[in-house]
Amino acid sequence: MPKVKFVAQDFMGMVANLPAIKVDILYESHWTCQAVFRSLPPIAKMYVLRLLYIDSVVKGKVIDEWITPEFQSKHRIAIDKLEQLRVLLTSEGGREQSYKLNPRFQKQLRQALASGGVSPRDSLSSSIAIRLPSLAELDSYAMKQWEGVLLQLVSTAFPESAHDVSSDRFVIETFQKAKLLDSGLKLTEAGFQFLLMDTSYQLWQIVREYISSAEDRGINNVELIRFLLELGFHVVGQPYNRDTLTNTEETVLEELKVLGLVQLQQGMKHRWFIPTKLVTNLAISLSEASSRYQSEGFIVVETNFRLYAYTSSKLQIQILRLFARIEYLLPNLTVGTLNRESVQNAFASGISAEQIITFLQQNAHPHVAKRQPSVPETVCDQIRLWETDSKRVKFVPACYYDDFPSKEIFEKVCMFARDRNGLLWEDSSKKIVMVQADLHEEIRSIIRQQSSYKR
Amino acid sequence: MAKSNDIGQDDVSQVVILLDVNPYFWGRKSIESGSSGLTFNQFMQSVVLFVNSILLLNNLNEAAVVAFGTRSCRFVFNSKLQGRNDKLHSSPSSRLLKHIDEFLNTEDALPTSMEQTNINESSLLSGALSLALCYIQRTLKSGQPHPQPRVLCLQCKSDAPQQYVAIMNAVFSAQRSMIPIDTCAVGTEHSAFLQQAAHITGGIYMKPSMPEGIFQYLTVVFATDLHSRRFLQLPRPAGVDFRASCFCHKKTIDMGYICSVCLSIFCKKRSSCSTCGANFSQRQPTSIGLKRKSATITLS
């Protein structure tokens, strides 16, 4: 079955893809070095820490001995990752391979260790403290902004319900670049799937597109990455002065405001920005095993395919509309049913059964979340069955052979393929056969062998 | 340890560091060795860097430091409490150093009771250990997702036999709640207590052969989180000194007598147990009540 899935590339994958010179520029700041360091797999972190205060070149053999023999694969992954990110530089001295930490990275990380735990810029004096939002206010502000962004996406899918959604050109453009919207402002398959993902994943998607499109808008992407990584180290809810920022950072800040990553405020003398928890969320989602930012669930699904959603958020109701038929809308409760028609609609727009089920599980109301399973099995099974209904054709990569020199060779090949369970189709009168693609090499050698034998 | 409450990531750890700031040890050391060897300043620098590197490893990591001297012990640093009272500008390391300073001053000012004046130079490890375990228990029982806890004990002074029972009780309670105790004997001698503590709780014991390079030991061995320990080669115990201290004179003994009722250890034969009061019958001098205990076991 063709599964349309996002490339799960993370922030650091992007860094690793930058040209070497740009990576070196990134490592000029110790904030980026720290962020990169934190994103590494646990063993790789240990390796960096061990090498941090060693100035000379270390032989590869020494490092290989650090791991217990049965976990060699983990060791290779760690070393590869370090090399990709240019944290570890290899040098071929003589016959043996030896390693060294990237000197810039080493210097900056040492500095980070020595200074330890201060935030990148000083927060403003407490004279403006009265005007600062409380943490709860800040959270709701961030969520409101973020939902606003997603609503713009949803509203294009359901234009009839979108009378009061103001759209932002910058956001729509980013969506288009991420291929969540097509040029006619229609939601794509990827767009539908996007809506069912969790917040940190969505945020990362948007930010990734934002970075890769930065060059076109005249923003240096290295500087942008550096600023975003640095932002993750600010303390949530503290005001930071905007007057010390560069022009680029100013523009970026304005756009991040739209996404709800920062709140901007202005006083008599100063202008300042306040990072919200979405920023730290972004920083956390940098690492591979991201601990998910959890919001309270709201959905109860019953065995009779009824779905109760305790929410008044327009966005969440719109998302439910993707795969459920909404029956009643009450002030704090939405009731709907899952039926064949509604779910098939979702499949038609490119959402898979698994995605619907995970969405229902992830957003299960606290009361049912404790139950195992949180979504009744009958419902899950039925959704999967509905999906297989619509997907009766299976795709298998295959190779096509014809023009066999003799009947014998043709039959040998058929026999071989049948023995390996790889025969898909044959026509003995025309001597044509279709075999699974992974058997190709072996079949080729058989044919070659046979025909040379003939001669 | 409630596995269900773990934070999603594998390598998130909470490290409570016990720091021996015994003035007798450091003072004598500076007199004896002059400028060579590990000085208190170097030691503190290494510890500060180590705390910073723990915090750098993961943004969810927590570190706390308990300082212990001869008479008292106290929390001097906790990364979780980036207090609103503290100025935000002050870095964690400067806070740590400031509080160590305060701790040393208050310890100096503590009144010495008359009995204790006859030089009690040993460090109060048992108190510090209990303090650390209590703190860890609090986070374990808070019901919220918590990092994997472990204790790192940096002891400089040699063992104090009179604390044997208290330390062992703390160690066994750590074992019950599956908290590894890593131990590092910074001083000149091997420490039997630290070896036992690490052995019982599944931690790592090490005595650096070059104390000047303590930072490298700390980062290579003790910074390793519990998750990575399964994969990395770490120092294995060469042998553990299992000798116990007797309850009557607090001496470390190879052979002794042990109460059959409560398992208290004595260096001399007694007619009744001082701990549980069991009376050992005199009519059967072949010692039904008292058994000889041989206690020199070395693990290879």
TrEMBL record, chain B:
Pfam families: Tfb4. It is found in: Nucleus. InterPro entries: TFIIH_Tfb4/GTF2H3 (IPR004600), vWFA_dom_sf (IPR036465). Its main location: nucleus. Keywords: DNA damage, DNA repair, Metal-binding, Nucleus, Transcription, Transcription regulation, Zinc, Zinc-finger. One of its GO terms (biological process) is regulation of DNA-templated transcription. It comes from the Eukaryota. One of its GO terms (cellular component) is transcription factor TFIIH holo complex. GO terms for molecular function: zinc ion binding. The keyword Cytoplasm does not apply. Belongs to the TFB4 family. Component of the general transcription and DNA repair factor IIH (TFIIH) core complex, which is involved in general and transcription-coupled nucleotide excision repair (NER) of damaged DNA and, when complexed to CAK, in RNA transcription by RNA polymerase II. In NER, TFIIH acts by opening DNA around the lesion to allow the excision of the damaged oligonucleotide and its replacement by a new DNA fragment. In transcription, TFIIH has an essential role in transcription initiation. Component of the 7-subunit TFIIH core complex composed of XPB, XPD, TFB1/GTF2H1, GTF2H2/P44, TFB4/GTF2H3, TFB2/GTF2H4 and TFB5/GTF2H5, which is active in NER. The core complex associates with the 3-subunit CDK-activating kinase (CAK) module composed of CYCH1/cyclin H1, CDKD and MAT1/At4g30820 to form the 10-subunit holoenzyme (holo-TFIIH) active in transcription. PANTHER family: GENERAL TRANSCRIPTION FACTOR IIH SUBUNIT 3, TRANSCRIPTION INITIATION FACTOR IIH TFIIH , POLYPEPTIDE 3-RELATED. This is General transcription and DNA repair factor IIH subunit TFB4. It comes from Ceratopteris richardii. The lineage of its organism: Eukaryota, Viridiplantae, Streptophyta, Embryophyta, Tracheophyta.
